[in-house]
Design goal:
With 340 residues, this protein is α/β, with parallel strands linked by helices. The protein has 15 helices and 13 strands. The longest helix has 16 residues.
Length: 340
């Protein structure tokens, strides 16, 4: 039994998902003739109460397209210091859009409306113009943390008053919706653009969608082409996303419960210094200073358990739909008896 908890991106399509993919009606999406892609885009746009949605091969490309839609070279994007667009998109904001990032020192990947106000640049010509506020929900490096929607509304007011765009990196938004009992419509009313991913918690092999109103999304398909993201018979992938939307959202609560049980077990181990608060499917914990991070990972690997190190003795565990009940019981037993 191999237990892979490095990320929720390691999942493989189920038999039912593969069946849906194989029966997809496809066409050339560059000509906008793929029925299943068109169906997915229409469905997502309706879910969020937006006019337009566009299918992308990755969440990074969807986010990078959003940044380019909102900004011009020399502008500045306001985001958290842990933001995916800053840390894990290969400097794409600078490379693709020529923008800089103003980093907010938030709490577990989240910040306040007041903090946004405090970092908006003055209008003097020698400052980079502030143009876009970006948030990530759930916040990956925040341990799958969920934003307070009331704070999001306050940030929206700041954006409106200061003529700033508002983009949501919703790679794991599905987890937040389930955990907080919120809706896609709520988020669609607040954000100018939203990216959502299907290859994480929903278990698809590939795919994200960027959604927004017609005006802001006007050039999205051209930018996707510039980035090399146009696809042909992409309906096979879109069919997986449609299946996941119907079948894999409600079950996310199981991943959250397993993550909390793992966190509880970790907190009882003498070799663990701290376990960060767990809201969804991500567990971040820190080893005691006398415990070697690489040795800890190696010991688990020897037992066919795979997790990821974050440096400075911090590690990450991510639960997902391919992490079964049997694996969960086995992993808890391994942790209980682990000697490093």
């Amino acid at each position: 039994m191999t237990i892979d908890l490095r990320s929720d991106t390691v999942t493989k399509p189920s038999k039912a998902m593969l069946e849906a993919m194989m029966h997809a009606k496809v066409g050339d999406d560059v000509f906008r003739e793929d029925e299943t892609v068109n169906q997915l885009e229409t469905h997502i746009a309706k879910m969020f109460g937006k006019q337009t949605a566009l299918f992308f091969p990755s969440g990074t490309m969807a986010n990078q397209t959003a940044i380019k839609l909102h900004t011009s070279p020399g502008d500045q994007v306001i985001c958290d210091k842990y933001a995916h667009i800053y840390n894990y998109e290969s400097g794409g904001a600078a490379f693709n859009s020529g923008v800089s990032c103003k980093l907010i020192d938030g709490e577990r990947g989240m910040f306040t409306a007041q903090q946004v106000l405090d970092v908006i640049n003055p209008e003097a010509y020698y400052y980079s113009p502030s143009r876009l506020v970006e948030i990530e929900n759930t916040a990956n490096r925040g341990g799958g943390s969920c934003w307070d929607f009331n704070e999001i509304l306050k940030i929206k007011n700041v954006c409106v008053e200061n003529k700033l765009g508002f983009h949501l990196d919703g790679a794991r938004l599905w987890n937040a919706l389930v955990e907080k009992n919120e809706t896609t419509e709520q988020y669609g009313k607040v954000f100018d653009t939203i990216s959502v991913c299907f290859s994480k918690g929903l278990g698809c092999p590939v795919g994200s969608v960027l959604v927004g109103d017609e005006t802001i999304m006007k050039n999205a398909i051209r930018i996707r082409k510039v980035f090399g993201g146009n696809m042909r018979q992409a309906g096979y992938l879109a069919a997986a996303a449609l299946y996941a939307l119907d079948s894999n959202i409600d079950r996310l609560v199981d991943d959250h419960n397993k993550a909390r049980e793992i966190g509880q077990m970790l907190s009882e181990l003498s070799i663990i210094k701290t376990v960060e608060p767990i809201e969804t499917n991500i567990v971040i914990f820190e080893l005691n200073t006398d415990v070697n991070e690489k040795a800890f990972i190696r010991k688990l690997s020897e037992k066919n358990v795979h997790i990821i190190g974050m440096g400075t003795n911090k590690l990450r565990i991510v639960t997902h739909l391919d992490y079964t009940d049997a694996m969960h019981e086995k992993f808890l037993e391994i942790l209980k008896n682990l000697i490093v």
